[in-house]
């Protein structure tokens, strides 16, 4: 028992030691997301190779996840220096001065060359990796967390197509990871293929999301994620967004800016399908395009 506790303390110390430089010194090429992913991989290795319990590892993983969500870049000039070091930053060289149709065409060329997966593989990726943090998967709409390491029973939690299949998410678009999210099955059913928007008089609400029978309102902390997923989908598959819907989504895009979790997810998707959501990498691009 004493040896077990000592090992756990050493592991925790190593995690903290690796994380502290984020705020204490410059680390060229080592942004918070990359460091976070590295720590999580190392903890996965420890889980399979050492005698420390799975519960202990889960606790450490959740702590590191929170660290990633709250981490700040080392430089006080945080925005520009941080994004310049982000994976995929070089993709957008020369696009800064473009807008409208020219910017849209340039971005479409970048996102259209992606590796597609079949739908079952996409579901596995969602639950085993993209939306799985420390053995827990969180519903995009309600925030409910489910302890699982694989795709659960579909009546419990399933995959939400933020751009509905009935509205055009078919073929390779059906399994495009950039617009898929883990969702509570009941919340997913409530959303259906209804448009996103503001709800004042809900007939259903849970975890901050609401539904009035015609419009689905996403909880505030994930509104931006949904908006940027739809911007990506409209760009990639040449799908229109109505002016009223676009107005709401752009408000959500501003209200809920890109965070560390969303950037890390974008990096992971890049590894799986070899393209990125440019509106996560460069949020300002969304303001320069009429969808």
Outline the structure in words:
With 291 residues, the protein is mainly alpha-helical. The chain folds into two domains: 2-80, no CATH class; 98-288, no CATH class. It has twelve helices and eight strands. The chain has helices at residues 2-19, 21-24, 32-49, 54-70, 78-85, 100-111, 119-130, 185-191, 223-237, 243-255, 260-273, 278-281; strands at residues 132-133, 136-138, 145-147, 157-161, 180-184, 204-206, 209-211, 216-217. The strands form three sheets. Strands 1-2-3 form a three-stranded antiparallel sheet. A three-stranded antiparallel sheet has the order 6-7-8, covered by helices on one side. The longest helix has 18 residues, at 2-19. The radius of gyration is 20 Å and the shape is globular. The N and C termini lie far apart (60 Å).
Topology (SSEs and partners):
Layout: H1 2-19, H2 21-24, H3 32-49, H4 54-70, H5 78-85, H6 100-111, H7 119-130, E1 132-133, E2 136-138, E3 145-147, E4 157-161, E5 180-184, H8 185-191, E6 204-206, E7 209-211, E8 216-217, H9 223-237, H10 243-255, H11 260-273, H12 278-281
Antiparallel strand pairs: 1-2, 2-3, 4-5, 6-7, 7-8
Helix pairs in contact: 1-4, 3-4, 3-11, 9-10
Number of strands: 8
Strand content: 5-15%
Distance between the termini: 60 Å
What would you call the structural class?
Answer: mainly alpha
Order of SSEs: HHHHHHHEEEEEHEEEHHHH
Brief descriptors of the model:
single chain; 291 residues; 2 domains; 3-stranded antiparallel sheet; 8 strands; globular; disordered N terminus
Task: Give the structure's gist in a few sentences.
This protein has 291 residues and is mainly alpha-helical. It has twelve helices and eight strands.
């Amino acid at each position: 028992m004493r040896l077990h506790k000592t090992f756990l303390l050493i592991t925790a110390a190593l995690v903290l030691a690796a994380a502290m430089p984020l705020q204490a010194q410059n680390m060229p090429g080592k942004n918070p997301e990359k460091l976070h992913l590295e720590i999580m991989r190392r903890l996965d290795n420890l889980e399979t190779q050492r005698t420390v319990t799975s519960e202990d590892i889960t606790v450490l993983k959740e702590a590191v996840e929170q660290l990633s969500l709250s981490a700040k870049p080392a430089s006080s000039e945080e925005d520009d220096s941080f994004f310049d070091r982000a994976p995929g930053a070089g993709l957008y060289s020369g696009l800064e001065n473009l807008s409208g149709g020219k910017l849209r065409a340039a971005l479409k060329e970048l996102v259209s060359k992606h590796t597609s997966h079949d739908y079952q593989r996409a579901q596995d990726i969602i639950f085993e990796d993209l939306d799985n943090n420390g053995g827990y998967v969180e519903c995009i709409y309600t925030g409910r967390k489910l302890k699982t390491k694989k795709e659960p029973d579909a009546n419990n939690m399933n995959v939400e197509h933020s751009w509905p299949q009935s509205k055009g998410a078919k073929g390779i678009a059906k399994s495009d990871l950039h617009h898929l999210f883990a969702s509570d099955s009941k919340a997913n059913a409530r959303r259906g293929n209804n448009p996103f928007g503001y709800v004042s008089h809900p007939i259903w609400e849970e975890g901050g999301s609401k539904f009035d029978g015609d419009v689905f309102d996403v909880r505030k902390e994930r509104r931006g994620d949904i908006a940027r997923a739809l911007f990506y989908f409209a760009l990639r598959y040449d799908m229109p967004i109505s002016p009223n819907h676009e107005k709401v989504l752009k408000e959500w895009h501003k209200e809920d800016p890109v965070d560390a979790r969303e950037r890390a997810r974008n990096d992971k998707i890049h590894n799986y399908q070899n393209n990125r959501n440019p509106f996560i990498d460069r949020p300002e691009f969304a303001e320069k395009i009429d969808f």
